[in-house]
Predict the structure.
Amino acid sequence: MKKLLIASTALVMVAGAAAAEVKLSGDARMGAVYDSEDWNFSSRARVQFTLSGTTDSGLEFGAKFRTSDIRNAEDPRNGNRGTVFLSGAFGKITMGDIASASEELFGDLADVGYLGDDQGTAKFGGTNAIPYLTLDNETTSGLMYTYSAGAFSVAAAMTDGHGYGSVAAGTFEADTQSYSVAAAYTFGNYTVGLGHEILDRDGAGLDMSQTELAGMAKFGNTDVKGYYAIGGDENPVDDAIGLSVASAFGATTVKGYVQKVDFVAAGVDSVTWYGLGADYDLGGGAILAAGIQDDDVDGSDPVANMGVKFKF
Amino acid sequence: MKKLLIASTALVMVAGAAAAEVKLSGDARMGAVYDSEDWNFSSRARVQFTLSGTTDSGLEFGAKFRTSDIRNAEDPRNGNRGTVFLSGAFGKITMGDIASASEELFGDLADVGYLGDDQGTAKFGGTNAIPYLTLDNETTSGLMYTYSAGAFSVAAAMTDGHGYGSVAAGTFEADTQSYSVAAAYTFGNYTVGLGHEILDRDGAGLDMSQTELAGMAKFGNTDVKGYYAIGGDENPVDDAIGLSVASAFGATTVKGYVQKVDFVAAGVDSVTWYGLGADYDLGGGAILAAGIQDDDVDGSDPVANMGVKFKF
Amino acid sequence: MKKLLIASTALVMVAGAAAAEVKLSGDARMGAVYDSEDWNFSSRARVQFTLSGTTDSGLEFGAKFRTSDIRNAEDPRNGNRGTVFLSGAFGKITMGDIASASEELFGDLADVGYLGDDQGTAKFGGTNAIPYLTLDNETTSGLMYTYSAGAFSVAAAMTDGHGYGSVAAGTFEADTQSYSVAAAYTFGNYTVGLGHEILDRDGAGLDMSQTELAGMAKFGNTDVKGYYAIGGDENPVDDAIGLSVASAFGATTVKGYVQKVDFVAAGVDSVTWYGLGADYDLGGGAILAAGIQDDDVDGSDPVANMGVKFKF
């Protein structure tokens, strides 16, 4: 009456040919959040759709989006906030809700708590997310190119700047174009990367840029990630620096990050914020996680959250 | 850990280990509705996502939500209107769009028609739904605890009252906290239950409560359910009483309910409403259903609906 | 090409009984759009849910909708923009977001580009979509009856005109009722059809109608479709005519359409618009597609799009 869904094992029976398919996975979380004043409950469940196929010549294509990406699209030319890709020997082209080239290769610092970067510090809103200049929030009109050859990975991303439909949704500024390029080199347990982003806000007469240097290392059971970002003259951010460490002790992983941003604008000098947390792996896709975060803005008190997160 | 789709049959093949998975089921309905003035068409289709997994120590976890629960979430800490749970020997903890403890254990009266409680009487809007004081409508920030031992079942539910994000959606009143506890005891074909609900509306300076006594019995092919609810001084409802009967004759089930609410407020004395309906099981998950409902408010005429409902 | 979840092979394992089930399929596209001024990126991914079952007496029932049909329903009696059906020897009844009877049997002209009718000409907004009078846009309250016997197919569609909930969404005009009937006859590679539509706008005091004559033919690898529509006195459209041709040369299909509408209103005389495109089948569900469209409205420049579309 219910169900069906086929196992990948069963899929093997379907000839040897690559068949286009739709797969489901999901995540959920439940717990409590302290916003520096009250404890609140917070839970969420999502399903991810992963679509994949292969052309006769061996190009791979696909798409993915989550139930949380489903929106009342205003323009039929724009879909949900997911991504669509086509890949082959030439590399991979991804369109839709992409990240900047820098974020694509370097990611963010280690997150803390069961909410990850969905909870920010009380006054500044800081999280483990690195303050990339472009595409750090949702878009529907981006184009990303990525390519890996041996130890080298490169990425380039851009938006068309015409804000198709997303202007109405208030999520994109018309006549704003963004470009970014990044490269990373991995040798053994070490990866170093360099990225550059440009945000051309014609409407506001601003031409902003930011360069990021990032490094990741693995020492035994400890992962370390750090970055330094320096902005151009017209940026709000002068420079930013951050570091995170995650160490596994059996089923327990202790994590922490600290970031500091210097602003260009007079009056606001700089903000430092940090997070500390621990994850305990319950097995089977369940993780118990707790974290605390704070910033040094006047009058800011710590925020925290504790709960369970699940993968399906 | 990811993926899935997997048939239960195929699942047998996947070792003995419990794998986290996402399953699909669905429901749909189509028919016509008489709103006391016109007949209208009405149809609906939904898919439910059921996520489930097991930790290494044997705790079960999961989540479920329907496509109709998918919303444009305003606060990333709140997801859709589904629920997430974790259960073990200690009982079951559920978070998200929960019901009150009383509704969790007693449910509502027998519903009529293919629309169930989605159609109410013309003037009062009454349905088979029992007028619980708390959590009778959607929430995203509730916490429920349930536990069963032999013939006993207990439940406790609360909301944090801070209305995370749902204030914006107008679905939750800030500074309103709700609490409820309920217990049920089953002996043979009989179940009796008692529940108590508190709605603390700090904002409005109101402290409301309601106590429910419920009984369910099975006589051969007939199910009977009744309740009596008595409210506190600051409630809108003074007391309420209701009864439903559902009798199966082969593939046909005849159902009816009647409810009466006495109000505290002067002017409005009491309202009585009822519903009568019949279901015919077509097999394979399809049911033909018709129902009529009415209340005794001045000038109220009967409403009715007739259609088919499907389970997938 | 479609598929999955399930391999029919795996389904065989599930006894012989017809089981109600939920299947997933999907589509996606990515490319660039020229709106006569700028080139923009545009991508989209969707998943379709197909629900199906069979009653004990052999009636088939089901429903389907896409993730892009999921809306914040304002009235619980209305679901998403999908459809629900029940079929048997008597024919097939479909409710929900149906098309007009004419569109159900004749469809639209051959589409061009990877965006199909999601891109219209610059000034007039014309596409390969035939200008049917009724139900050409979304509805949630329609009823469709279809029946086929040998070479004959008939369809009848209507809406109840009360605009349940959809008034609030601005997608349906209250007190507007639509009716349509259509028939088609197929002999060998030829199909001819006749349809009639009525749009009764009580609110606006208008009683509109339109009659369509349609023909489809297959000559070797070439598909030709044409129609002529003539409107009533109170219509905005006096008459309309259109033709499309699609010819396959190996993996390449060249397509084109042209349409002309004469308006009743003085001042605007008539508009002619056309589209030209080519599809290249990459296999495995992927198609490379490009198209250009234009109309003869003063100052209108061509629009175009080029990209890849995928089926999963």
Notes: Confidence is low (pLDDT under 50) at residues 1-17, 73-77, 163-173 of chain C.
